[in-house]
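Support request, please re-run this one:
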Amino acid sequence: MQIYKIRSLASSTEVNAFVEAAQAGGDPFVLLHLCDKEVVAGYRCQERMAQVAAESGAVMVYSDRSEADGTPHPVIDYQEGALRDDFDFGALWLLRTSALQPVAEGYRFAALYALRLALSRQGNLLHLRERLYTEAETDLRRSGERQFDYVNPRNREVQLEMEQACTAHLRQLGALVCPKADAGLPVADEPLSASVVIPVFNRERTVMEAVGSALSQECSFPFNVIVVDNHSTDATTSLLAACGDPRLIHLIPEETDLGIGGCWDKAIRSERCGKYAVQLDSDDLYSSPHTLQRIVDEMEQKGAAMCIGAYRMVNFQLETLPPGLIDHREWTDENGPNNALRINGLGAPRAFRTAVLRQIGFPNTSYGEDYALGLRLSRSYPLARIYDELYLCRRWEGNSDAALSLEKQNANNAYKDQLRTIELRARIRLNTDSPC
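Re-run finished. Output below.
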């Protein structure tokens, strides 16, 4: 078996030279060592990977590993919808030589991503649940810092290429969509009005500032603020009860099994929910008193089922934190509905046409519920975009994604990959019946 230790396989030139050399070698399998990280192979590591590939027919085998201190580092199974370009395969990839093929010319950053997408179209990318090697972790940032790499403006050129590679892959699969402006939004009886929806659990420190930010909106239409209090055990409930503003709707569900998505679903099915339901998290703020008007105006003008805005990362003194403004410019009218299957989030604040939400519903989870809905809506309906700052996302030690364990990160990633898989299959079926 040939072993290739390669520091960079970003460009088409590098990847295609590797493919040519591997095929010229004549071995059925090659072991690719992406040696930007230090790796120590375990006992019979390469022999075991080759054995599994031969017996399973997989086009690629990757495995769990250990960290330098011996801590287990499991990874997750590859799914059809695992289209994000940061999927963690580790540093050792066992590849079936006959499945390798050159990638398109011209990539400077996305060629390795394009190669593994091409492999996935040919066969199984198999996750072997055995710790076969040790890999030293070089990115020691917390999960809450790493998760915004893909929207950092410094990575813009890289992201454009990743989008190009993903779009080409979706085209090969017959999964591209092109929602039409006359997509047939359901007719609603509600007059022009809006509801700011705030799910909350134990946020006594921040919830009333969020409520105040919502109630201070200046609009030409009536609006209310629906806070779904998910049985808080701190002072949240009493603070909300003492508010005294009749526009505040304080809902305490009967159910005790609700996640954030379930709380949203209760809000949008309330008879007091307006024509538009607009997101505000319980520890965040709107940037100005005109945010709600701007969102509703955009949705009315575009006839959109959903609107996605831009937000700025700040601390509790409202000082900007890296990467600053997150405008999700990788989400565009032209290709955003397709690129949504690659990126890990669609932006904030999000606003929805309530009548559409009531037809589809939120998944009752506390992670990825908004992403699931964004994928589903983008398949069928036009979406509006606002690239200006509308929202302040306050980062603090209480944020749910500030510093996640590896186990939790894996669970979150696996769930979003499953959402993508469901959506990918739905889009392929849609195009079988009505090609884009």
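The chain has 13 helices and 16 strands. The CA atoms of residues 195 and 277 lie 5 Å apart.
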